[in-house]
Amino acid sequence: MVERQPIVEMRGIHKSFGAVRALQGVDLLLDDNEVLGLVGDNAAGKSTLMKVLSGAYLPDKGDILVNNKVVDIKTPQDSRNLGIEMVYQDYMLADNLDVTSNVFLGHEAVRWKFGPIQILNKTSMDRETRALLDRLKIDISSVRLKVENLSGGQRQTVAIGRATAFEARVIIMDEPTAALSVAAIDKVLDLIKQLKEEGASIIIISHRLEDIYRVGDRVVIMRHGRMVGDRKVEGDIHSFREELVAYMVGARDDFSRIEESEED
Ligand SMILES: Nc1ncnc2c1ncn2[C@@H]1O[C@H](COP(=O)(O)OP(=O)(O)OP(=O)(O)O)[C@@H](O)[C@H]1O
Ligand SMILES: [Mg+2]
Predict the structure, then answer these.
(1) Cβ contact 220:36 at 8 Å
(2) Ligand 1, from 48, 206, 228: best to mutate by most atoms within 8 Å of Cβ?
């Protein structure tokens, strides 16, 4: 067995919303520089788990380690300071602002990936945004375009571009290819491959198993608030899909154990 090099480790994460036990002791390992797929049926707990990692939700119980050290993530800013960025299912872009403003939103006083720049200077922010879009081969004619005028695919790439602009080492994407055209999906998947080449570690939540197959190194499967499988992405697409579906519907579970009845 090769020694694993986790950049992120989540241990025994629990999270309930009233009577809904969204996460019931979930463990997750993200290796350095891997693309990890996170799949599961609706309401399995995928977004909740990633919102715990991004600081949007506080877990009821459990630990998070970054580079093998226990960290305290209480807010999105804590997570961001650790180099973790999340692209949300609904992008969370400010529609009435232009592309540059969206890229810099919430980042007004931070380190830019390519060294310090004069923040608050619109011209230099525009220039840096243009350079970011070019580097990521994101096709948008002007950084002064309001985001509400962009196509769905362009919005998704802006959301991803924004997440990668500020020294993120871990990028979480929640359904990055949902509701996109085939061409836009290809763009997003190429972007993910490029970010991996640049050294990032990436978690992608997706219902599109073929997307995970195309860009993923490994995939983990959740069901009813638990982790039920952890596989390398390999073999042909048909058996890959069949195997994942078996986990998703409950026909397979690699981690099932006799339930220690937890304090209910
Ligand atoms: N803020 C919240 N308040 C109350 N319940 C919530 C909240 N967020 C999530 N839940 C519940 O937690 C469970 C897990 O939801 P979650 O959004 O994590 O699922 P998911 O795996 O991302 O599903 P999908 O594939 O549909 O996005 C669901 O039963 C959901 O209703
Ligand atoms: Mg979700």
Answers:
(1) yes
(2) 48
Distant-in-sequence, close-in-space partners of 197: CB < 8 Å, separation ≥ 6: none
* Residues contacting ligand 1 via CB (< 6 Å): 17, 20, 22, 40, 42-48
69 CA to centre of ligand 2 in angstroms: 27
The structural domains of the chain, with segments of one domain joined by +, span 6-249
Spatial contact of 123 and 61, defined as CB atoms under 8 Å apart: no
Task: Say which ligand is closest to the CA of 46.
Answer: 1
40 CA closest ligand 1 atom index: 21
In order along its 264 residues, the chain shows pLDDT tens digits of 567 789 999 999 999 999 999 999 999 999 999 999 999 999 999 999 999 999 999 999 999 999 999 999 999 989 999 999 999 877 789 999 999 999 988 766 444 555 555 455 788 889 889 998 998 888 899 999 999 999 988 998 899 888 888 778 999 999 999 878 888 899 899 999 999 999 999 999 999 999 999 999 999 999 999 999 999 999 999 999 999 999 999 999 999 865 544 444
CATH of domain 6-249: 3.40.50.300
Selection from 5, 35, 71, 85 nearest residue 199 by Cα: 35
Evaluate if pTM is beyond 0.85. yes
